[in-house]
Amino acid sequence: MLPLCTLNIMASCTQVRVSVIGAGNVGSSLAQRLAEKDLADVVLLDVLSGRPQGLALDLMEARGVERHNREIIGTTDYADTANSSVVVITAGVPRKPGISRDDLLLTNAKIVRDTVKGAIAHSPNAVFIIVTNPLDVMTYLAWKTSGLPTHQIMGMAGVLDSARFQTFIAMELNISASDIHATVLGGHGDLMVPLPRYSTVSGIPITELMDQATCDRLIQRTRNGGAEIVELMQTGSAFFAPASSASLMVEAILHNQSRLLPVAAYLQGEYGLEDVFIGVPCRIGCQGIESILEMKLTDSERAALHRSAQSVRENVDRAMKLLENA
Ligand SMILES: NC(=O)c1ccc[n+]([C@@H]2O[C@H](COP(=O)([O-])OP(=O)(O)OC[C@H]3O[C@@H](n4cnc5c(N)ncnc54)[C@H](O)[C@@H]3O)[C@@H](O)[C@H]2O)c1
Ligand SMILES: O=C(O)C[C@H](O)C(=O)O
């Protein structure tokens, strides 16, 4: 028997639709990637009238040049997002130099709550991917707001953080990034957990290819990867690599690829953690999160993951209280 979601996709087989909520830097770059990779028609929604419509028209005008036939619709009306297979939430403010992702908590909690309510009303069967920061906390809030089963909702961060670690390893060793597999688990914050033991160059652990001090320097640069770009740009935060990372997750879902990707997933005892969304390796297919892989961790790796989860939990509690009083 075909999995349920395959039927969903086949039912609208000529027009698989992905909705991207928030037509800012990440949202518009993601819309471009999805259409130009010929993955789906895209609905781009924003609270600002005119912006999503203008961006959609601009992307439509590139179709002949880029040679695809995907439709891109810009809108402020959630009705236009109806029957999406995947909804990606990128609405929310980015951070400024000198502040942390957690400082965005109150503003973005309200935005995520409202946008998830708007989108789920029209696409209750969609897989939801949250991008808005602070990522793990927003994914938890989105899940609470939506009432979705936990396999149908995940946060994007691990793919991006691993891609950064991969990039820095590639630059250090002067080896193609394509030959490097990097693993970063944990929350998308200063306490994220890059795992050199599980990061390899064509199968060789990086710990055999560089000394400890070099490895530590690359880990620190990975942890600081978002802030490094915020400091350089002075306005806004990274969006090309975040859009690529979200696009990879959308592709894994739409094409039912069974990719093993680090995503923020709801844990119920895995890694000794409960009731928290945090980055762990998951098998991603048409149902969303199809399973969570428990990697063997050393005591110190496990302790680092628990510290990261504890920080996410504290911020979830803060967000819940702020929302109650807002
Ligand atoms: N998870 C990650 O790895 C990651 C990576 C990059 C960015 N981010 C986060 O993603 C978010 C977006 O980043 P960006 O660079 O695209 O910001 P941006 O300012 O360019 O775009 C945000 C968009 O959201 C829209 N918006 C705000 N409130 C809305 C609402 N209620 N409904 C619909 N749209 C609304 C804004 O009008 C704006 O167009 C930020 O919170 C940023 O920190 C996360
Ligand atoms: O750093 C940020 O604030 C944006 C994003 O989370 C990133 O890692 O690039």
UniProtKB/TrEMBL annotation:
In this protein, which residues make up the domain named Lactate/malate dehydrogenase C-terminal?
Answer: 160-320
Q: Which residues form the active site?
A: H188
Residue stretches making up the Lactate/malate dehydrogenase N-terminal domain: 16-155
Q: What class of enzyme is it?
A: oxidoreductase
EC numbers on record = 1.1.1.37
Which terms does the UniProt entry file under GO BP?
lactate metabolic process; tricarboxylic acid cycle
Q: Which UniProt keywords apply?
A: NAD, Oxidoreductase, Tricarboxylic acid cycle
What does the similarity note say? Answer: Belongs to the LDH/MDH superfamily. MDH type 3 family. Belongs to the LDH/MDH superfamily. LDH family.
Q: What is the name of this protein?
A: Malate dehydrogenase
> Whose protein is this, by species?
Myxacorys almedinensis A
The gene name reads: mdh
